[in-house]
Amino acid sequence: MTIAAAMTGPAPLPLSVAIICRDSERTIGRCVASVRGLARQVVAVDSGSTDATVRLLRDAGAEIVEHEWLGFGPQKNLAMARCREAWTLFLDSDESVEPDLAGSIRRALTRDDAGVLGYEVNRRVVLAGRMLRYAWQPERRFRLVRTGAAMWTDARVHEALVPADPAERRRVGRLAGTLRHDSIPTIAEHLARQAEYARLAGLDARARGERGSVASLIGSPVAAWAKQMLLRRAFLDGWRGWAAASISASASLMKHLAILDACRASGHAGAERGP
């Protein structure tokens, strides 16, 4: 059964939606519902949910692949390998397509410009029940691509979608509209997740031979906060903007602490300067 089953209105597009998930019952319903009637197929790769995620996906008509965790990029590549349609839209389980973005996707795929490899979309975070207008904006993400024409890198965190063919000459366009991101159930939970991402980033940095420094440890969090509050004008989002800027600063701090830890573990602690 496809996600388009029993739908009325405009015909679904030649579009597959690829989702990776685990214990995502809080957001998976909104995620899948947002592409109902838009996509012909939804593929979800679940890595061991113990909550109602799989049941909710099954009830929504998604095709479910249960597979052990391989990493963000490899897991997404596994999902795309099951996609049958001409185009694939990648969604995180806490993301959903707003109506304005759905309209842009429909127009783009109907036009089917041969010179386009895929499209970036703009993601906006919901914090404490309100979508941020300034903090973390714009946040362009390459998510819509011709199936098989790109692949995800295997970085432990901050994986990227890149052309499968190094000689690829087709361009990546941009779509109007909003990709909603319900990534912050509570700020405490979000910070705990950022700590794990920081640990993974530290491992990636060590693998690349990066050497941490006290200067980066001090300067990068300050720069991250200033970027949001001053350049992105996060203060116009009220206290939520202040919180977003502070989250960015803390994420930067944790990342650079993790890099220093990774450097020490690999015997490069001498690269740092300071006490």
Tell me what the structure shows.
The chain has 275 residues and is an alpha/beta fold. The chain has seven helices and eleven strands. The protein has two domains: 13-184, Spore Coat Polysaccharide Biosynthesis Protein SpsA, Chain A; 187-267, no CATH class. The strands form two sheets. Strands 1, 2, 3, 4, 5, 6, 7, 8 and 11 form a nine-stranded mixed β-sheet that branches. A two-stranded antiparallel sheet has the order 9-10. α5 runs parallel beside α7 and α6 runs antiparallel to α7. The chain is 37% helix and 26% strand. α2 links the parallel β2 and β3.
Question: Quick recap of the structure?
Answer:
The chain has 275 residues and is α/β, with parallel strands linked by helices. Helices cover 37% and strands 26% of the residues.
Summarize the helix and strand pattern as letters: EHEHEHEEHEEEEEEHHH
In the CATH hierarchy, what is the superfamily of the largest domain?
A: Spore Coat Polysaccharide Biosynthesis Protein SpsA, Chain A
Taken together, the total number of domains comes to 2
- Assign the CATH class of the largest domain: Alpha Beta
The percent range for helix content is: 25-40%
Might you state the CATH topology name of the largest domain?
Spore Coat Polysaccharide Biosynthesis Protein SpsA, Chain A
Total number of beta strands: 11
Helical stretch count?
A: 7
Distance between the termini: 62 Å
On the 0-100 scale, what is the average pLDDT?
A: 92
Question: How is the main sheet built?
Answer: 9 strands, mixed
What is the CATH architecture assignment of the largest domain? Answer: Alpha-Beta Complex
Structural class: alpha/beta
Radius of gyration: 20 Å
Which regions have little confidence, pLDDT < 50, spanning 5+ residues? Answer: 269-275
